[in-house]
Automatic annotation (TrEMBL):
The species this protein was found in: Jiangella rhizosphaerae
DNA-binding region residue numbers: 51-70
Residue stretches spanning the membrane: none
Keywords, sorted A to Z: DNA-binding, Transcription, Transcription regulation
Listed GO MF terms: DNA-binding transcription factor activity; transcription cis-regulatory region binding
Stored InterPro entries: Homeodomain-like_sf (IPR009057), HTH-type_TetR-like_transc_reg (IPR050109), HTH_TetR (IPR001647), Tet_transcr_reg_TetR-rel_C_sf (IPR036271), TetR_SbtR-like_C (IPR049445)
Protein name per its UniProtKB record: TetR/AcrR family transcriptional regulator
Domain of life assignment: Bacteria
């Protein structure tokens, strides 16, 4: 939920609107975004044990500013997660104008980025929370139409469910890749497992 001064409060139950957490004021919003970027970087390097003081230092703000936006460590985990989900949902809209396969493949590449961030903090996320449930629904709402469109055009395997596709592509990030070339090669192989290519002739 969002507090009166526009900072993010602790997630409650019920119909929590996780996409309304960003502060309204420009200065507070800038600090919020810097803290999210710093937290994402720190969690990728050190996992969930990353120091909050280090995150504040990376963002160029005081520890008090961090706590005003994220009163608990769980609030910070969830906000980083929500930020990635928001980017994933925006990507679906941005890619919708492309040819069906290009739109789906482009979105699934973004999904790999999201999955890599989620894995860094997965052990700390409360998978039973309303935040997690709402984000999962938002991902499905954003991505499923891209798959259906690709299937309707004959570019994607008709028997593949959206869950099938997410499991296949998400599995690419099961183990970290030190070599981005290898990551791209493995991801391309996964996408080829979904794609239907026109018959030669």
């Amino acid at each position: 939920m969002t507090t009166a001064d526009g900072t993010a409060g602790s997630g409650g139950g019920g119909t929590l609107d996780v996409f309304a957490r960003r502060p309204k004021r420009a200065d507070a919003r800038r600090n919020y975004e810097k803290l999210l970027a710093a937290a994402r970087e720190a969690f990728a390097e050190a996992g969930v044990s990353a120091s909050l003081e280090d995150i504040a230092r990376r963002a160029g703000v005081g520890i008090g500013t961090l706590y005003r936006h994220f009163p608990t460590r769980q609030d910070l985990f969830e906000s980083v997660y929500v930020d990635e989900v928001e980017a994933l949902c925006r990507a679906a809209d941005e890619l919708a104008g492309l040819p069906p396969w290009d739109a789906l493949a482009g979105w699934l590449r973004r999904f790999v980025t999201y999955t890599a961030t989620k894995r860094a903090i997965a052990e700390a996320l409360n998978h039973d929370s309303s935040v997690f449930a709402t984000c999962r629904k938002a991902i499905n709402t954003a991505g499923e139409p891209l798959l259906r469109r690709a299937q309707d055009s004959g570019a994607a395997r008709p028997e593949a469910s959206f869950d099938d596709v997410l499991r296949l592509v998400g599995g690419v990030t099961m183990y970290p890749f030190a070599d981005p070339v290898q990551l791209e090669r493995v991801l391309t192989m996964a996408l080829d497992g979904i794609r239907v290519r026109p018959a030669a002739g």
